[in-house]
Design brief:
- By secondary structure, this protein is mainly α.
- It is built from eight helices and no strands.
- It has one domain.
- It is globular.
- The relative contact order is 0.12.
């Protein structure tokens, strides 16, 4: 019964956060840019559920990542209230919600890539598989940074909210470092759990 309700709960949670996020966001253009990947992910998840079911772990991680994106889209990454509190509490110089987003940007795609690589039998050797996954997630992060650059070229106003650099000169490099760290951490922490779920498919 619980397994049958899980997909419904997933959709309900996603849509609830999506519609909340869409109500009077801080900046509408930024909201569209930040939430678009989550919306695309939603469509892909629905498609995969009926044609190519994924492991529960992947579905859960995608939902968490989507929520992070939608919260960031609503407030902008530089102004998420909880991380303003963390900034004041820990004495940070900036709101670091964007770093959580980039950690997830490595953590979640790493497990998605791992699932696809294993199920399609891309690599026979485990070490090459892990190396490829880490490289893939780092490349994905770099591509996202290029998108931010393109947005900056198109609109200075939209770029300020979308990039959320907050005056940090090494923002691009640290974003990629967080994504890289997320990928490595995901492979170390969730590899065995993921393997067990893959065996159950």
């Amino acid at each position: 019964m619980i397994n049958r309700l899980a997909p419904v709960a997933w959709v309900v949670v996603f849509l609830a956060v999506f519609f909340w996020s869409a109500i009077e966001p801080k900046d509408r253009a930024t909201w569209v840019l930040e939430v678009l990947p989550a919306a695309v992910g939603f469509g892909l998840v629905i498609w995969c559920f009926f044609r190519y079911p994924l492991t529960p772990l992947v579905y859960q991680l995608i939902l968490v990542h989507a929520i992070i994106l939608m919260v960031g889209g609503h407030y902008t990454y530089a102004e998420v209230p909880v991380f303003d509190w963390f900034r004041d509490w820990f004495g940070w110089e900036r709101n670091n919600y964007d770093k959580l987003g980039h950690l997830a940007q490595g953590f979640v795609p790493a497990i998605i890539a791992r699932e696809l690589v294993i199920r399609f039998g891309v690599f026979a050797r485990r070490r090459w598989r892990s190396f490829f996954i880490v490289c893939f997630t780092l490349a994905l992060s770099a591509f996202y940074e290029m998108i931010e650059w393109w947005v900056a070229l198109l609109s200075d106003e939209a770029a300020e909210a979308f990039l959320g650099t907050q005056g940090y000169v090494w923002d691009t490099q640290s974003d990629m470092a967080w994504a890289l760290s997320g990928a490595v951490i995901a492979l170390i922490l969730l590899g065995r759990v993921h393997d067990r779920q893959l065996q159950g498919l």
